[in-house]
Amino acid sequence: MQKEKAIQLEELPEKFRKAVVKLMAAEDMDVLQALDFAAVLVEKNSEAWNAELQSRANTLYKSRHMSELNKSRAEWDKVTAKKLEEEHRKGYKEGEKFVKEVENVWHVPCSVCGERMTFYTWNPGFVEAYAALKEAFADWHHSDCSTG
Questions:
Q1: CA 40/CA 84 separation, integer angstroms
Q2: pTM of the predicted model, to two decimals?
């Protein structure tokens, strides 16, 4: 077996050397990788050249595709989060408005522990009946409180 001689860029013809150096810089390759790639490029009509070309094209396409996909996802996340927040606020305000307009709430103290108990009604006659309701519920207590 012969020992391989180290390749010196200075030994290459000037135009070829410049092309290899440009390739090394553009593709971030070492000398051997650049020379191998250059050999493939020289064989334009070969299967190896077509395979390398296809491989590089796919890599670039996938890179761009993933980049665009990630940008779209990030934008979608921003839009969706903003829309969800807007809808949450809108729903909360509508619910609050509904409760204020339709639901009547009153509190009476528990007859055992004294903590307040909350009651709700949708009865439109609540305002007129409030005093009677408060009196009727005056002896009520929490289910956990005993009268014992």
A1: 54
A2: 0.31
